[in-house]
Structures are given as structure tokens and as C-alpha cells.
Amino acid sequence: MTAQIETVDFFAFDNSYARLPDRFFARLRPTPVAEPRLVRLNKKLAWHLRLDPGKLAAPEGVEILAGNRVPKRGEPLAMAYAGHQLGSFVPQLGDGRAILLGEVIDRDGVRRDIQLKGSGPTPFSRLGDGRAALGPVLREYIVSEAMATLGIPTTRALAAVTTGEPVWRETPLPGAVLTRVASSHIRVGTFEFFAARGDLDAIRRLADHVIARHYPEAVDAANRYRTLLDLVISRQAALIAKWQLVGFIHGVMNTDNMSIAGETIDYGPCAFMDVYHPEAVYSSIDNTGRYAYGNQPRIAQWNLARLAETLLPLLAEDKDAAVKEAQDAIDAFAIGFETAYAAGLSRKLGLFQPRPGDLSLAQDLLERMARNRADFTLTFCRLCDAAASPDADAGVSSLFTDPSSFDDWAAKWRNRLAEESGEANERRAAMRAANPALIPRNHLVEEAISAAVNDGYFQPFESLLTVLSMPYEDQPAFGHYVDPPRPDQVVHNTFCGT
Ligand code: AMP
Ligand code: MG
């Protein structure tokens, strides 16, 4: 079956990636599915992308979102990329189950990719079926939208449709297609693809494309490729700091899952930590803890070193000089990350006028939380109340196996708070803006997915999205969404489901 071409204008496409040389991608159409049905359309995002939500939700729109029709001016293609997976280099990965339909300019003037994920096999599918199961599609929808409302750069979910076809994993599962929106889908692995082939011309073109699209400030720099590298590194440092500050664990930080634009991308076996621990791992495929919570900054820097290697020939004529440029750029990651992370921790503790010792105070709390199995999100959330009044201390200390461990720390924290100017309630409000109450907790995500997949019941999915759309607000009506899992609800493993 071949997808039909649409005649009605749904998208005002302007496809810059499709204008790159042919070896950057494979042109092909999505493979149509039996029975497209809209599960959810992100109307707000549609509006932001200058799309008509009514038209998208109508049968013709849903056919586009399922890959049964290609919208007018769409130039569907699967992107080529390589990547380091769990540390080992794979010279060819590519979009094995995703197809870029085209690019639109959103209401902020930002160019956005519109991509179908789960849209059928491509020349990059290897042994895969090119499809996605409903569970992982809903997981990506929930978590990526939650990240967006938390203020963390991320790809977005525009729509989810079911296909009416099973996908075969260990058992047959309902199939689905996610429409993903990204600043671009260019990855560290895209650069590695061409570096592995010694295709310097392609690397230069890709770098110029990325500069024009994501980092225009590098255009006039003395060494534009060094500046590009610096800017990618600084965006990633800021991104990873944000992950750490909300307890997000990506789960598969392979170089093909690291966006050049600095967005969180490829939500697979990701998780938000419940109990705080630097060694927390949820991904079922991460046996060595390579992508554990506490390793994420180091892994990001490692991935960026792989990017820097691909750019070496562009950094300087002389090889040693190029290596020095790359090394200096990579060293800056640690500084960028630590600065952003320390500033974020201070905000989480209500310390807005920096003093030496603030970072150790925060680290002391984190160590106590790890020893006492304290819930990450709830500890910081309740700390906001404790900042307003010590009466609220018991709410925090009760999260610790040994409550006195918190009380000892709180005494030091209060001494430090006394040096801050400003009124207690204002401090509480400012802290709340840094400490979300509502995160997509694993057990809630699993509940929502299981109701949808097993019973065709989407209400828990809808409710979770509603609650997560205001993560920093007090929402008393949704109290149970704030709660950590009961012991029988704890999710220990998350799966990529591919
Ligand atoms: P991921 O682990 O989802 O980041 O994917 C790693 C690589 O495997 C990418 O090249 C994907 O396109 C490919 N892949 C993942 N799942 C499938 C699938 N069901 N069919 C074809 N390719 C896939
Ligand atoms: Mg991937």
C-alpha cells in the first residue's frame, strides 16, 4: 500500500533538511495502516505550529497523522545517522521507524520538524518492523509533554493515533503512531554518520545547516565551528542540569539519542526517580548502570567528545591545534553543568543570594536523602512549606527512614536561611517555582498505559496529562498524584518497547 498524496493544505511546509544532499536521508512515504483512530491531539501545540486543530482531528487529518496520506508540500524522508550505543559505535542506525514529513515555522518564528514515529519500515530498519506499540507512544506523549511544562527543552508530542494493526513484540500489542515535533532531529550521531565515512564535505554542510538553523550567533564568529561546538556543549550542559534538578533519568543516552539543538529526545526507558539515589537506574537494558542518574553529566560530556571528534578537521588546519580546540570546548562542559546545577540546587533550597558553602549544604541534604531513602520530588516540595514555617518540618522528616537526619540538616539550613533577605511566604513561592509537585511518576504512567492498552480506557491517560500541565501549582484535588508509590506500586524497570 502506498500513501496517497493530500491535496488540501494542512501544513505550510518549508523543508530545509530535504534540500541537503541525497546521502543525508532516504526519501520514502510512510506505510499506510488499516484503521487510523485519533487517540489524542495536542490542540495547544497545533495552534502554536499554525495548524488547524479541527482539520487535523477530522478524518483526512487523522489519515495524515497515521501516515495514510502525505500532506501537500510534505517531502517525507528517513534521516541517516550513526551512534555510540552503550559505548560501542554503530556506523549506521538512522530513522528505522520514523519519517520526517517536513518543517514548519511556529508562531515564535522557530522552525520545527514534524515527524511520524512508528510509520513503517525504512531503509534503516535493519531487522525492525518500523512500527511502535501504543504503550511506548503514550509514554513518550506523557513524559515529553510533562518535560515541556516543567520548562525543560524537549521534543513535543502533537498527536497519537492507533493503527488498528497489531505490532508483534513478545506478544501482539496495539500499534500506534506518534507525531513528534522537534527543533530538529539532528543528533550527535548524524555527525558521526558522516565522520565514519570520511565525508568531510557532508560534515561541513551539516555543521553549516545546524549553525543557520540553531546557532545563528556562530555565523560571524572567528572560528565558527569551534563556536558551534561551544554552543552545543553549553546547551547540553544547561539541559542535563535541568534533568538532574527534577530527577529525570533518560535511560538511553546513546549519541544517536542526543539532540544537537539541546532538546531531550527519544523517550524510551526513561523515568523520574521516586527515592533519591545517584545510582538509580530504571532501564531494563542498562545492566551496568552506565546511564544511571548520577552518571548523566559524565555521559553527556563523553557524547559531546564524540561530537567534537567529528568536527576536528573543521576546528583548525593543524591536527594538534584542532585537538586543543576540541579539548578546551569539552572541558567547558563541566563548568557549564556545575554552574547551572549549583544555581538550581540553591533555588530548590530557597537560597537566592549565593554564599560559599551553599553547594555543600545542598549536597549534604542529598546524601542524607540517599541514606534515608527519601522521595526526591516530595522532599523538595515539602521543603517549600518548611521554608515558610518550621511547623512543616515533620512533613519532610517523615520521608526519611531516620527523621532526625533531616532535622539535623534543617538546623543548618535555617541558619543559612537567616542570612537571606525577604519574607518567608515569598521564599516559599519562589521555591515552589523550582520544586514541582507533579511529575510523571512511573506508577502513574504505567497505570495510564495499562488502562489504555489492556482495556482501551484512555481516561487515566487524559487525567494524567491534565494534572501534569500545571506541575508547579498546588492542586489539592489531585493530591494522590503527588504521592510516591506504595511499595506494591513501585516500578523498578522501564522498557524501551521497541
Ligand atoms: P532507539 O533505541 O529507539 O533510540 O532506536 C535505536 C535505533 O533502532 C534507531 O535507528 C531506530 O530507528 C531503530 N529502531 C528502533 N525500533 C525500531 C523498530 N521497531 N523498527 C525499526 N527500527 C527500529
Ligand atoms: Mg533513538
Mean pLDDT: 96
Bound molecules: adenosine monophosphate, magnesium ion
Structural class: alpha+beta
The coarse overall form would be globular
Q: Give a short account of the largest sheet.
A: 6 strands, antiparallel
C-alpha end-to-end distance: 23 Å
Strand content: 5-15%
CA-based gyration radius: 23 Å
Task: Write up this protein.
The protein is an alpha+beta fold and 498 residues long. Among the domains are: 17-188, no CATH class; 351-432, no CATH class. Helix content is 44%, strand content 13%. It is built from 17 helices and 14 strands. Strands 3, 8, 9, 10, 11 and 12 form a six-stranded antiparallel β-sheet that branches. Strands 1-4 form a two-stranded parallel sheet. It has a two-stranded antiparallel ribbon with strand order 2-5. Helix 11 runs antiparallel to helix 14. The protein is globular. The two termini are 23 Å apart. The model has no long low-confidence stretch (mean pLDDT 96). The chain binds adenosine monophosphate and magnesium ion. Residues 256-257, 266 line the site of magnesium ion.
